[in-house]
Amino acid sequence: MDLRRLALPPTLIAAACLALAGCGGGSGDSKDSSTGDAGSLQHVDGTLAAAGDGFTVTPKGKDPITFTAGPAVQPAALRALEASGAKAHVTYREQAGADPVAASVAAAPEIDASLASYEGQVKAVSSTSITLDGADGARTFRIEADDREAFDVAHIKEHKAEGSAIRVYYRPASGDYPAAAAAYEDAS
Q1: Contact 118, 139 (CB under 8 A)
Q2: Residues 180, 133: one domain?
Q3: The pLDDT of residue 4
Q4: pLDDT (tens digit per residue) in 133-156
Q5: Would 37 be classed as within a structural domain?
Q6: Residue 125 confidence (pLDDT)
Q7: For residues 127 and 143, what is the distance between their CA atoms, to the nearest angstrom?
Q8: What's the CATH code of the domain at 155?
Q9: What is the 3-state secondary structure (H, E, C) of 53-117?
Q10: Residue 136, Ramachandran bin (φ over 0: left; ψ between -120 and 50: alpha; else beta)
Q11: Exposure of 9 by Cβ count < 10 A (0-12 exposed, 13-18 middle, 19+ buried)?
Q12: Which of 39, 65, 134, 135 lies deepest, with the highest CB count within 10 Å?
């Protein structure tokens, strides 16, 4: 049978594509209904341990969280991150009655004493900059190419839509060189 000759209705093709992408048809038990049935993206940093088709992440001072690896998460990358000993930054969605599904896993950014921080509501975000409105007014930070992996723009846009605050860690301005964001975290 030649599958290329099958005539499939466009709605069936669209539904199949959405199902494969993880869109729609969610449980409705998401923590944040403002982002649709699939739930909002969340993130956690901690020590990673790969196991079978999934992995666990243990945040500092908390119990381990077991994850199912989503389609974009490569097992070899999990093993390499585990072997490196670096902390993991996992972006995920909750799902009713099952382990959360990891959308992405990367090395967590290092936040050291040389970085300053600023907390506020997100006013604008792109892959190259972020603007927060905090206690000292609106401040814009550029995001260097080397730091872009530490900024989950989709997750930060959810913070903007919710009006919830985040904390940006940044390298202070020096001369004509403006402040550069290096990492962020939820401000809760």
Answers
A1: yes
A2: yes
A3: 37
A4: 999 999 999 998 888 888 888 889
A5: no
A6: 95
A7: 7
A8: 2.40.50
A9: CEEEEECCCCCCEEEEECCCCCHHHHHHHHHHCCCEEEEEEEECCEEEEEEEEEECCCCCCCCEE
A10: alpha
A11: exposed
A12: 39
Share of the chain above pLDDT 90, in %: 34
Residue 51's Cα: distance from chain center in Å?
Answer: 21
* 3-class DSSP assignment, residue 41: coil
Cβ atoms < 10 Å from Cβ of 36: 13
CATH of the domain at 97: 2.40.50.140
Tell me which amino acid residue 148 is: R
Neighbours of 3 (CB within 10 A): 6
Q: What average pLDDT does the chain have?
A: 78
* Spatial separation of the C-alpha atoms in residues 70 and 41, rounded to whole Å: 13
